[in-house]
Every structure is written in C-alpha cells, then in structure tokens.
Amino acid sequence: MSAREEILAKVRRAVAGAPETSVPRGYRMSNQVSDLVGLFAERVDDYRAVVHVVPAAEVPGRLAELVGERRMIVPEGLPADWPRGIGGTSVAELDAADGVLTGCAVAIAETGTIVLDTGPGQGRRAQTLVPDYHLCVVRADQIVSGVPEAVARLDPARPLTWISGPSATSDIELNRVEGVHGPRTLEVVIST
Questions:
Q1: What total of structural domains would you count in the chain?
Q2: Quick one: pLDDT at residue 179?
Q3: Would you say residue 118 lies in a domain?
Q4: CATH no. for residue 117?
C-alpha cells in the first residue's frame, strides 16, 4: 500500500458512519454596477495597464496608431479591418515579435480582469504570454460585473488565461518586477 492509499484509508475509517451534510452555496451571482465600462477601465488602470475607451467605429484606426511599426502577432479570427501581423506560431516568430494583438472571451469589471480562452482572435497561450507587449480589445458587451458571471460564460474545458494587468511579481524585499511571467506592458482598448 502506498503512502497516499494509507492516508486515504485512514480518512475513510475516520469519517465512516458520519452523517451526510450539505454545504449551502449561496454565492452572489451578480452585482448591480451602473457603469461596467467605467468600473472596468478604472480597475484595469489600477493594475498599471494603459486604457483607452473608444467608440466601436474608431477601434481600427486607434489600433493602427497603437500598433504603429511594431511586429505584432495577430491571431486568426479578428476583424479584417484591424491591423495584420506575423503568424506567431513558431519559436522564431514568437521571439521576433514585439507584441500581440488579441480580443478576449470576457472581462470582469470588479477585478479588472481579462479572460482569454484561445477562441477566435485570442491566439494560443504562448502567443499571449511570450511577447513583451499585449494589446487587447474588449467589447463593452463582454464586460460583466463579477467573477461568477464570467465563470458562467466560460467553458471550463478550454484553456483559460486570466490577466489582471501586466505580468508582475515582487521579491522578498517587495521590489516589483514586471514582465517575468508574461507581457511587461498591457494596453487595453475598450470598444463602446
């Protein structure tokens, strides 16, 4: 018998005959927020991301300005009038890229979090974590108030990447270091 099996056997013997109990799950499923776009923009900004709130008709032009001369990975599935880029599927392409342009699956106003699920226009996980710059477009209708609403919109079988600002960590002396586990710069265009 392995150590794991031995421990589990002891737990089973200890709880044998104990009455079944139910755990109430009264989670708050939504929160009434009068301005989801405003709250999301404020929270994303709190994470040191650069935020632009732009009317939907102006998004292609703003993206062209922001992309400029950067060599960008642009996954398949984005609108045709958005900037085009390199494929970003090989190690060499990922290494040569200045950044990545993506959409998202959902965004959370309360936490300022963007969730990618590798759907159309979001790219593979490596495409969004390797480049030093991430330019992400969030449509106003993709913003929900809280995490439970976001989880309800997501498919748990898909690979999910939850982004709350640029990648950052702190050392033991609390010195913040950005870009360790993903993009050093996050720029978000909120399309209204």
A1: 1
A2: 64
A3: yes
A4: 3.40.50.10420
Report the distance separating Cα 57 and Cα 3, nearest Å: 62
- Structural domain harbouring 93: 34-191
Which of the four pLDDT bands, split at 50, 70 and 90, describes residue 91? confident
Mean pLDDT of the region 59-64:
97
CA dist 56 and 162 (Å) reads 24
Query: What per-residue confidence (pLDDT) applies to 2?
Result: 92
87, 93 in Cβ contact below 8 A? yes
Residue 75 resides in a domain: yes
Q: What is the mean pLDDT of residues 137-150?
A: 96
Residue 13, in any domain of the structure: no
- Is pLDDT of 12 > 70? yes
